[in-house]
Specification:
397 residues, 5% strand, three-stranded antiparallel β-sheet, mainly alpha
C-alpha cells in the first residue's frame, strides 16, 4: 500500500491483528487472526459467505482490499449491514488501494462515490471530501467542469433532502453532512443557486448588504462558506468590505469565520491580498492559523503563501504563533505538481541551516506533493474519461 510517488521501499514485516465480519446462512459472524507472515488465512466456516467485510468494526490498523467480485458482493448485499466505522473504512481503504495501485483507479472511484447516497450521514460525508480534494489537486483545469457536474449530481439530492435549516432532533452527523454538502456545492460544485443563496446569507450575516448585521442569517456552521461565497460573488469590493468588518467585529468565533473566508479565494489576486494580511493589523496573530490554513487548501492560496515566503520568510516566522517556522512547510503539502514541489524546495531549503526545525516537515510536504503528482500522471487519462462519463450518468433516485 505504499502510494505511487513515495520513496518508501516497503517489505517490512509486521504482526497485524485482522478481524473480519461476514454473513453466512443469514447470520452475521466474526472471527480474528494474527497475521505474522507475508500470507495468512482466516477460516470463514463451511458455508460460502454472502459478503465479507475484512475490517470488522473498523477497529484494527491494517489496510485491506477485495477482489472485484467480492467487492461487488459487499456493495450489493453487505453495505446495509455495515456500521458507520466499517463504511468509513471501506471508503478510505478504497482510496488507499487506488493511490497504491492495489485496485484499478476507476473501480475504486465507482465504489467510493456510491456512498454519497448512503443514508448514514457519516458515510455519505466521505466521498464529498474526496471529490473536493480531487477537484483542486488532482484534476487538470480543463477536466474540472466534469468534477463539478458530478458533485452536483451526487450531492444535489442530498441538499434537497437536508436544506439550509437544522431540524428538531437532528444529529451532529447530519449537521456535518449538511455543512459539507453546501460547501461542496457552493464553492466546488458550481451550483449557482446554492452559491447565490450562500452569498446572500453571508452578506446579511455581517451587513455587507447595506443593512444591519443579522446573526441569524445563517447557521454558525455554515457562516464560513456563506462569507466565502459572498466574496467570490462580490469580488474585490466584497473582499475589502469584509476586511473592514474586522475593525468592528469583536466576537471571536465570527472573526475566525471572516478570516477563514478571506483565505478561501480562487482568484489569484484576492488570494495574494489575503496572504498579505499578516503584514497589517486587521488580522490578529492568533487568527493567522485560520487564514493560512484555508489559503493552503487551494492552489491560488498556496502560490500566494509561497510568494510571501520568498519575499519575507523571517518576518513571516516572527508573525507565526511562537515565532516558529517548524510547521510552515505543511502549508504547501496540498500541491500536486512536480514543478510546485521544486519551487517549495527552492524557497525553503536555503533557510534550513538557520531553521533546522523545518527540515522534517519539509520532507513530508515534498513527499505528499510527489505522491499526488505521481497519481495524477499515472491516472489522468482514465480519470478524465471516468469523471466525464460519471457526470452524465442518470441521477440516482
Amino acid at each position: 500500500y505504499v502510494p505511487h510517488g513515495s520513496d518508501a521501499t516497503g517489505g517490512e514485516a509486521w504482526r497485524v491483528p485482522v478481524c473480519a465480519r461476514w454473513e453466512a446462512a443469514g447470520t452475521s459472524r466474526e472471527a480474528c487472526a494474527l497475521l505474522e507472515g507475508p500470507e495468512g488465512a482466516l477460516d470463514l466456516g463451511p458455508t460460502c459467505p454472502a459478503w465479507v467485510m475484512p475490517h470488522a468494526g473498523g477497529a484494527s490498523y491494517h489496510r485491506w482490499t477485495l477482489a472485484p467480485p467480492d467487492l461487488a458482493r459487499l456493495r450489493s448485499a453487505g453495505l446495509a449491514h455495515l456500521s458507520t466505522l466499517e463504511k468509513i473504512s471501506l471508503v478510505r481503504n478504497l482510496r488507499a488501494a487506488q493511490q497504491s495501485g492495489a485496485m484499478p483507479w476507476v473501480d475504486a472511484m465507482e465504489a467510493i462515490t456510491a456512498l454519497a447516497s448512503d443514508p448514514d450521514p457519516d458515510a455519505a460525508l466521505e466521498p464529498a471530501a474526496i471529490l473536493a480534494r480531487l477537484h483542486d489537486r488532482f484534476v487538470p483545469q480543463a477536466a474540472r467542469p466534469a468534477v463539478t457536474a458530478l458533485a452536483r449530481r451526487l450531492y444535489g439530492p442530498v441538499f434537497a433532502r437536508l436544506g439550509w435549516e437544522k431540524k428538531p432532533g437532528e444529529t451532529l452527523a447530519t449537521r456535518r453532512l449538511r455543512e459539507a454538502t453546501i460547501e461542496l456545492l457552493a464553492l466546488t460544485g458550481g451550483d449557482g443557486a446554492v452559491r447565490t443563496e450562500a452569498a446572500r446569507r453571508g452578506r446579511a450575516l455581517v451587513g455587507l448588504d447595506g443593512k444591519p448585521p443579522r446573526p441569524d442569517a445563517v447557521d454558525p456552521g455554515l457562516a464560513q462558506v456563506a462569507l466565502a461565497a459572498a466574496v467570490r460573488e462580490g469580488g474585490a469590493s466584497a473582499f475589502d468590505a469584509l476586511v473592514s468588518k474586522l475593525g468592528t467585529v469583536e466576537d471571536p468565533a465570527l472573526r475566525e469565520k471572516i478570516v477563514a473566508a478571506l483565505g478561501l479565494q480562487i482568484d489569484r489576486e484576492l488570494a495574494a491580498r489575503a496572504a498579505r494580511l499578516w503584514q497589517g493589523r486587521e488580522v490578529k496573530p492568533h487568527e493567522y492559523r485560520h487564514l493560512f490554513g484555508e489559503l493552503s487548501t487551494l492552489a491560488a492560496g498556496r502560490e500566494a503563501m509561497l510568494a510571501e515566503v520568498e519575499r519575507d520568510l523571517e518576518g513571516l516566522g516572527r508573525a507565526l504563533p511562537g515565532g516558529s517556522l517548524a510547521f510552515l512547510p505543511a502549508l504547501f503539502a496540498g500541491g500536486c505538481e512536480v514543478a510546485f514541489a521544486d519551487a517549495v524546495r527552492a524557497a525553503l531549503e536555503p533557510h534550513l541551516p538557520a531553521h533546522p526545525e523545518m527540515r522534517r516537515m519539509l520532507a513530508q510536504a515534498l513527499e505528499q506533493i510527489r505522491i499526488c503528482a505521481a497519481e495524477r500522471e499515472e491516472h489522468r487519462f482514465e480519470a478524465g474519461v471516468w469523471f466525464a462519463r460519471a457526470a452524465r450518468a442518470p441521477r440516482a433516485r
